[in-house]
Amino acid sequence: MGESDQIQIDGTTVDLVDPAQCTPLPTASDVLHRPDQVACAATVLTPSGAVFTAIESLLPGRLSDTGLIDALQACDRLRALVDAKQTELLAELARRDPDGAAFLRDEAALALHLAPATSQDRLDCAAELTSRLWDTFDLLRAGHLSAVHARILATATIELPDPVVAKVQAQVLKRAPGQTPGEFRAAVRRAIARHDAKTQSEKHRQAAAQRHVRKQQVEDGMGWLTLFAPADGIETVWTAVTAWGSRTSRGRVRWSV
């Protein structure tokens, strides 16, 4: 138990008890007579087959409003456990068929109804999560992190060197369980920019060299104007266009970011 598992009360250090270790597994009687308590327990218990059985047996109509929310949260934690197991299986499949010669990769794509590119992404992420991103995988398996969060990190760091990946993972996992996927993605970008500034600067330079403007005619005499450019330049153009639109549209233009 580390320092983060302790608190000070009147100058005395007190160890915090993990709720998962002191919360009993729900029984069939609990499911029938105390459904709200079962749902609440499932939000702190380590995801398992026994917890799944209890949640699956709950009758939604017998839950209070609070119990309903707890049950929803418990389902997310259980889903994370299943996603973690699938990640392990995909990693093993990638190990057995590294170059696709055994056609296991193709069979996996067919079995999961995934496009080949999507299936390959899943395999790549699985390999990362069961190796360099083991701490992330551990949170996924324990139900504290979603598969979406895990894939965001795996995809973003897959081309980075091991030392950078370790630093990025250590930084972003601190707040990850309480973040939405969008918030987590932004946190990952900031961490990569901090720990891999040289590579990110070179990537930005290469991307900026591809800047362009495109126009496309569509129906009803309308058209699209697409601008791909550095973000600071986009902000400048957006400010100018917004100002122009405010003077000329009289509220008829819908602005979106």
Automatic annotation (TrEMBL):
The lineage of its organism: Bacteria, Bacillati, Actinomycetota, Actinomycetes, Jatrophihabitantales. It comes from Jatrophihabitans cynanchi. Residues 70-229 form the DUF222 domain. This is 13E12 repeat family protein.
